[in-house]
Amino acid sequence: MSLTHPPFARLVAGALGALVLAGCSAPAPRAERAAQLETQLAALRDANAAGEFVRAADEAERLLAQIDRSDALGARAALDVALEAGEAHARLAVSAPFLREPDADGVWQVSPIAHRMAMARYYALARSLSRRAEVRDDQERLAEALRGADLKEFAFHAQLGLEPSCRAFIQRASELHDPRRAAELFQRMPLAGLRPWLYAELFEHQRSRDERAAFRFAVMAIDEAPSASGFGAARVAQLERWIASESSLEFHCPKCDLAVNPGLRACPNDRTPNVEFVGRKRL
Length: 283
Hints:
By secondary structure, the protein is mostly helical. The protein has helices at residues 6-16, 30-49, 53-66, 72-95, 112-130, 139-160, 163-172, 179-188, 195-206, 211-224, 233-246, and strands spanning 100-102, 108-110, 249-252, 278-281. Helix 9 (195-206) packs antiparallel against helix 10 (211-224).
């Protein structure tokens, strides 16, 4: 998709341009300006929290065109706005996309990919601003938000099948090698509709390295597949087939020793979740 296409260009122009208000009047006192920015940010966060993602995206674009980013206060406000804009487009991509791009026949169609491209651009802006933004007592919250942005982009690359960038991301993030730590991280983040893609990509990474870890990632991807747009039955069947017959391990219930049935979500005897099953060499 070309970034010069009018609908996309209009939407992200405020985030990507170097627009700074240059009015002739004297700037507002710092405290007054900080309070005004906080009020605007609160309204933007409320829009996202209420599921009004179109309104949030439009309001974020407007704010980014207005905020003076020349000092640390403005840079931090713009950073927060960019994160909210990225979140709005991440949610629009899986709920109600409205951006369009041409298909193979040149016909303009609604495109979730266009929203994910917008998301990636806003997150890139947020990262660039983080190097000079004013961080008060919420450094931990900011780090968590930027981490969430990284994971959403990772999921986007997984959906597109961009294996080199996915491998590079996994190699940099050692906590993602462990299924329990990865699951705790993913559940803490606003990743609705994206977790199956993340788990499936981590399964692919581990299947030739650690089949026990790969099994757990496969099970978690299957468990959450119904929540993910585009994560179809064929992908689920591929994961189930690997569990049932392609892995060099057999997986059994740790309580009753029943072999796993990947079409179920738990042991039918004692309801032990499949993710807790243990592996042993296939006979």
